[in-house]
Write a structure and sequence with these properties.
By secondary structure, the protein is α/β, with parallel strands linked by helices. The chain contains 10 helices and 20 strands. 25% of the residues lie in helices and 22% in strands.
Amino acid sequence: MNDQVMTDTVPTKYWHALDDGRIQCDLCPRFCKLHEGQRGLCFVRANQNDQIVLTTYGRSSGFAVDPIEKKPLNHFLPGTPVLSFGTAGCNLACKFCQNWDISKSREMDTLMDRADPETIARAAEELGCRSVAYTYNDPVIFHEYAIDVARACQSRGIKSVAVTAGYVCPEPRAEFYRYMDAANVDLKAFTERFYRKICGGQLLPVLETLEYLTHETDVWVETTTLLIPGENDSDEELESMTRWVVEHLGPDVPMHFSAFHPDWKMMDKPHTPAETLIRARQIAMKNGVRYAYVGNVHNKACDSTYCHQCGELLIGRDWYQLSEWNLTAQGCCTACGAQCAGVFDTKPGDWGAKRLPVTLSHYRAHV
């Protein structure tokens, strides 16, 4: 499909017909069953002419160059710029969504920028980006578009990063991650109650995605949990979550604990205290997580990387700005020689904390 003439609607393959005349979408565990003309909960996959189509191919809610640490990925090409983009819609219904204007959009006018895969890859290359991130909304729902962009990027030596909730079925998951180099997976909580009540989904498929990525692919994986006061921030839940990560994924998978701020349908909840994030980090490290970070708060000590063996400061971070760098060209601690898990260049990037909005009209002009 990478030679696709630009169009909004393209056919998909993860669906099957039901005996009652509806079509079932098999991309994610929602299994939306749709009559002709209906859209799934994600809003962008629809039953048209007795097949499931993607209605947003080649359309984006916008492009920007970000620091890779903003995804957040702290162990994947630190300091480098990443070209970020998303589309519209989402296959979960998180009441706390902090990108709700994009993920819950029902207005296709939200998709203001058009770009074919080759244009995105060319823009990333000319902007000096080491990678492209599929973010703002979950790339699972624009599966076909994301894969085509990743293939175009691959041919130019540009990496692909998925920022995702991990809510996807096994067959499309395997196809999707053949083209991804890194992923930050939202582990939104560690109870089925939270996923059902707050997100309209299930926890188990997310855990299965995490285990698949860490044990059956070469994709670099980090997780993020947005801690919401009174919902998923208890010691008991954090103990269970972090022990599961170490036991099932291994101690080298970095965990990010981020601060919630009131948004969308959870305006009644308070901001997450910084102390909660620090406590979560301490619990994670006590249980064997080697790399744990806090997010959405200013705390250089808790957002820097330390050697798991000798405690040496390896990578200093102040928000998204790198400072100290005590890794060898092979990614080892300069003090004791222990390997730091991750994907590192011989030297860190110097993009810093900048955010650069990008329009792709200039890059389309070269087609």
